[in-house]
Structure formats: C-alpha cells, structure tokens
Design brief:
Layout (H helix, E strand, L loop, with lengths): L9 H21 L2 H6 L1 H17 L17 H8 L1 H17 L8 H26 L4 H30 L5 H7 L4 H22 L14
Helix pairs in contact: 1-5, 1-6, 3-4, 3-5, 4-5, 4-6, 4-7, 4-9, 5-6, 6-7, 7-9
Length: about 220
C-alpha cells in the first residue's frame, strides 16, 4: 500500500510529516552508528535489505489510489537490523521507488510512515512481548516474531492507511470496508509466509545476521 497521488489534506500532510520526523529522530538515536561503520557484515545486511525491498516494492497490485497491495518485508528487516536501522533501510528502499517513478516525492513522508515505520514498530512491539514472555523454544521467535509479526504489521498499516484516506474524505468508510478492510486477513497470509520463511532460513543458516535473536534464551 502506498500513495501514488497526493490524497491527503494539508493538515493531514503536516501531522504525518511531524510524526514521520519524530519517529525518524528516535530511530536515529537508537542506531549504533559506530557499529554500522565498523561491521562489514552489518553493512551488507543493511544495503542488501534496502536494495531487496526497493525491488520487491516495484511489484504491486493496484486496487484504488492509496490501496495498492505489495509485500512489505519490513518484519524480517527489523529482526535482522533492529527497528531503528530497519527504518533507514526501508526509507532508502522507498527512495528507490521514488527515483523509479512508482511513488511521488511529495508523499515520501506519508508512505514512509505507513509502509516502513508502522510495520517496523509493530514488529518491534511483538518482539519485545515475545522477549517478555521469555519463551525457551526457538519456534516462538520464528512464529511469533516472524510469521505473526509480519501478518499483524500488514493489518495495522492497512488500518492506518484506511483511516488516513477516510479522514481526508477520499473514500467513504463503507467503501473502505467493502473494498479493502475485509480482505486484510487474506493479505496477512502471503506477508506472514514470506517473512516467516526468510526468518526461518536465516535462523538455520545465518543466525548471526538476526541481530535481535538472543540464542542463549532458546534450547
């Protein structure tokens, strides 16, 4: 989902920009930049994730303006890099979609907020809940953080997008329910499968690339 046209009112655009900048500052403060500069493997993960997302986001199915469907992939990037660095990787990928003409630069903040920041924060919240529950089986990380986290990130991002479009008067609420919201559970399945499968593969072959994975907790 992404806004290919300016569908927001001026007030909404300002509020969205303010939220975007606030989260961006917090993300920048959470990133350990010295580690990124000195760790070649982390740099490869960061830039590789940005390029992969930039390519994946070129592939989308349009329903109506602002209601396109595509794989987010932010959940696996968040589990790989941490939420702060995942946001910067996602924004770099979003810049690629702007350069290729898939989305307008005017809507960069709004699209970054919905398609990058909201999914990353949802994934982070679910991951913290999984840590708080202190599950000892590594399948909890795969299924709760990977599969379930990805599915919920789509649902929350979709609801946020619909709320923005409804408040701006672009669509009636009944239209959004009939044409989009009732299909959100279906969107959860491919998102959850893709992210969960990648997390599973990385956990088996390259667990060191999942910076949020504490292997000492699982047995």
């Amino acid at each position: 989902m992404g806004m290919t046209d300016n569908l927001l009112s001026t007030g909404q655009w300002v509020v969205t920009l303010a939220l975007f900048l606030l989260i961006l500052v917090q993300a920048a403060r959470s990133v350990r930049w010295r580690v990124l500069v000195s760790d070649n493997a982390l740099q490869h993960s960061f830039f590789g994730a940005a390029v992969a997302l930039g390519f994946i986001w070129q592939l989308r199915a349009g329903i109506y303006p602002g209601l396109a469907i595509h794989i987010f992939g932010i959940t696996v990037v968040t589990l790989m890099l941490g939420w702060g660095l995942a946001i910067f990787a996602g924004l770099l990928a979003l810049a690629i979609t702007v350069i290729t003409g898939r989305e307008p630069v005017m809507m960069f903040a709004a699209n970054g907020f919905v398609t990058v920041m909201v999914p990353a924060l949802v994934t982070q919240g679910i991951m913290l809940w999984e840590r708080h529950r202190d599950f000892s089986n590594f399948f909890a990380y795969i299924f709760i953080c990977g599969f379930f986290g990805a599915g919920m990130s789509v649902v929350v991002a979709g609801m946020v997008m619909c709320m923005m479009l409804w408040l701006s008067g672009v669509y009636e609420f009944s239209e959004l329910v009939h044409d989009y919201l009732r299909y959100l559970p279906l969107f959860m399945l491919p998102e959850g499968f893709v992210n969960g499968a990648v997390v599973t593969g990385m956990m088996v072959f390259h667990p060191d690339r999942l910076t949020t994975l504490d292997q000492r907790r699982y047995r």
